[in-house]
Each structure stands twice: as structure tokens, then as C-alpha cells.
């Protein structure tokens, strides 16, 4: 009970003290409100433009368009990206290529009033751009692209340009890899074609020796030889015996080479298919993202918020004033007690 009474007494004393100094608090309130309003008015307003996109589940267009599978979600051209693909796309959006393109197109050096003759101008340039360009994930897994600037039209244009540059930068990265793969496959196809031509030339030589299809040809010659023996046809036996000698000499080689040729032609077909798939990826012009909304020119400033600045300034000023008055009052009380003790 005594502690509660002391708390109530202290609270009442504090309120009584505040009311006793109401003129000072009123002056501080009015002065801080006016000064904060003036300061907030002097701050150059900024405007924020925002675009929202989803990434695709995959950009391998050849797999999406040419794959036989229809139940694989990754091969669905309409499938949205998950966490991994979204993070990869955010990295591309924040890449140096995109920033350099924005700097060049909008002459951001002049826009940020930077002097290239001064030290660290490049660091300040990218620092300003990084503070203005904000790329983050939304709570629904999309990507928001935001640009803050005192020029609302510029903020809108830069945001949409970043959106558009994503296609060209991402396509360039993927096409470089696809072009390298295409060149490698082309060289491989040339090597395979050369090997098949060499095999064809060798088989042509075997054909000139009378070997065309070893197994079937051997079977037919053996059947005819058996008939010639049964009939006692010596001339036919001699002729067929010579044929059998040719088949025995060249046939196994031709048979083995036909097997090699068959495997090479299968591989040739596979390489050609891969080349066609890679060419689809190289010539891909399909957008690399799903655009939820493009940026529009903002008509309301995002910074500064005058009401917030004024509220914080007024509350802060009143708290500081209260603290100073309490300290002064406490010092006065201490001084009075000491004077009283000295008088006694």
C-alpha cells in the first residue's frame, strides 16, 4: 500500500510539475512543430515506382517445347519459379550489366551531380544507384523492382527499363552458353560425318570384292553350293567356292564395319537432334519472366513523410525538455537542501 501510494504520489507530482511548466512545453511544442515542418518542406521529395514479376520455372525452351513428358512441372512453360529460380533472377536484376545500362542511358553521373575528377566518384555512383534501386521478394514469392528518385518520370522509366533489360541480359547469358554448346556439337557432327564417310569408302571397297550383306549372302551361297554338290555340277561348285573364299576373307570385316556404321549413324542422329534443340535455345525470344504489373508514374511522394517527421520531432523535443527541466529542478532542490543544512 505504501509503495502504491508513493507511485501515485510520484505520478501526480510529475503531472503537477508538467502543468506548472505548461508555457515552456507549449513554446517547445509550437517551435518544434514549426521547425520540423520547415525542415521537412526543405527536403527534396522522392517518388517510388514499383513493378512486380514472377520468374519462370525454367528457361530451357527446347525442353519445354520439344520434350515428350507432359507431367513434369518443370517443363511447363506456364509454371512459376520457386525459391531457387527466384533468387537467381534477383541476382541478374541486380547485376552490373543492368546498372551500367541504366547509368549510360540516363546519364546518372549528371543526375547525381558527380564529378569524375574527384576521388571515389565511381563508388558514390553505385552507392547512390544501389540505394535507389531495391529488388526484393514479396511475401507471395514474386519479385518487386522499386526505384526511388526525386523525378517521378525517371523513377518509372528506370523501373520499367530494369524490367526490360532482364530479358536481354538473361538471354545473352544463356545464349552464350548455348552458342558454345552448338559450336561443340557442330564440331562433333563434323567428326562423326568424316568417320561415317571413311566407313562408307571402306564398305565400298568390300562391295567391289563382292561382299554386300555377309550373313544373308553367306547363307544363300552355302545353299547354292549344297545344291551344286548334290547335282555334281563341278563348274558351279568351283564358282561358288571362289565366292565363299571372298566371303571368308572380306565378310567378317564388312560385317563388323556395318555394326560400327550403324552405331555411328545412331550417334549422328542424336547429335543432330541436340543441335536442333540447342539452336532453339540460341534463337529463343520468349520473355524470361511473367510480368504482374509494370511501373507507372507515381503521383504521391514516398519521402519525406511530414506527419511522421513532425510527430517524432515534437515528441522528441518535449521529452528532452522534460528531462532538462527535471534535472534543473533536481539541482535546485539539492542546492536548497544544502543551503538549509548550512544555515542550521
Describe the structure.
With 344 residues, the protein is α+β, with helices and mostly antiparallel strands. Among the domains are: 1-43 and 304-328, no CATH class; 183-282, no CATH class. It contains 11 helices and 5 strands, in the order ααβαααααββαααββα. Strands 1, 2, 3, 4 and 5 form a 5-stranded antiparallel sheet that branches. A hairpin with a 5-residue loop joins β2 (133-137) and β3. α5 (96-106) packs across α8 (152-208), α8 (152-208) runs antiparallel to α10 and α9 (214-231) runs antiparallel to α10 (234-282). The protein is rod-shaped.
The secondary structure category is alpha+beta
* Shape estimate: rod-shaped
Overall pLDDT, averaged? 76
Total number of helices: 11
Strand content: 5-15%
Oligomer: single chain
Amino acid at each position: 500500500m505504501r509503495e502504491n501510494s508513493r507511485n501515485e504520489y510520484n505520478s501526480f507530482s510529475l503531472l503537477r510539475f508538467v502543468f506548472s511548466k505548461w508555457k515552456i512545453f507549449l513554446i517547445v511544442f509550437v517551435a518544434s512543430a514549426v521547425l520540423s515542418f520547415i525542415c521537412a518542406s526543405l527536403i527534396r521529395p522522392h517518388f517510388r515506382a514499383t513493378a512486380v514479376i514472377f520468374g519462370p520455372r525454367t528457361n530451357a525452351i527446347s525442353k519445354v517445347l520439344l520434350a515428350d513428358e507432359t507431367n513434369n512441372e518443370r517443363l511447363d512453360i506456364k509454371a512459376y519459379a520457386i525459391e531457387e529460380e527466384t533468387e537467381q533472377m534477383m541476382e541478374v536484376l541486380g547485376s552490373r550489366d543492368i546498372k551500367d545500362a541504366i547509368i549510360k542511358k540516363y546519364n546518372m553521373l549528371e543526375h547525381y551531380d558527380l564529378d569524375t575528377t574527384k576521388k571515389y566518384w565511381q563508388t558514390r555512383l553505385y552507392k547512390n544507384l544501389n540505394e535507389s534501386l531495391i529488388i526484393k521478394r514479396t511475401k507471395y514469392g514474386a519479385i518487386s523492382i522499386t526505384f526511388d528518385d526525386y523525378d517521378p518520370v525517371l523513377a518509372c522509366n528506370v523501373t520499367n527499363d530494369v524490367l526490360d533489360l532482364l530479358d536481354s541480359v538473361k538471354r545473352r547469358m544463356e545464349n552464350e552458353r548455348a552458342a558454345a554448346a552448338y559450336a561443340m556439337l557442330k564440331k562433333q557432327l563434323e567428326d562423326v560425318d568424316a568417320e561415317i564417310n571413311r566407313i562408307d569408302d571402306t564398305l565400298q571397297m568390300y562391295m567391289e570384292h563382292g561382299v554386300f550383306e555377309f550373313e544373308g549372302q553367306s547363307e544363300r551361297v552355302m545353299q547354292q553350293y549344297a545344291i551344286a554338290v548334290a547335282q555334281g555340277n563341278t563348274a558351279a561348285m568351283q564358282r561358288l567356292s571362289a565366292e565363299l573364299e571372298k566371303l571368308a576373307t572380306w565378310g567378317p570385316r564388312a560385317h563388323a564395319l556395318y555394326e560400327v556404321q550403324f552405331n555411328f549413324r545412331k550417334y549422328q542422329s542424336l547429335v543432330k537432334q541436340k543441335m536442333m534443340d540447342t539452336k532453339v535455345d540460341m534463337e529463343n525470344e520468349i520473355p524470361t519472366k511473367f510480368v504482374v504489373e509494370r511501373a507507372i508514374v507515381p503521383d504521391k511522394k514516398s519521402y519525406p513523410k511530414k506527419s511522421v517527421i513532425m510527430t517524432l520531432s515534437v515528441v522528441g523535443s518535449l521529452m528532452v525538455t522534460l528531462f532538462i527541466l527535471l534535472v534543473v529542478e533536481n539541482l535546485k532542490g539539492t542546492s536548497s537542501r544544502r543551503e538549509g543544512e548550512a544555515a542550521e
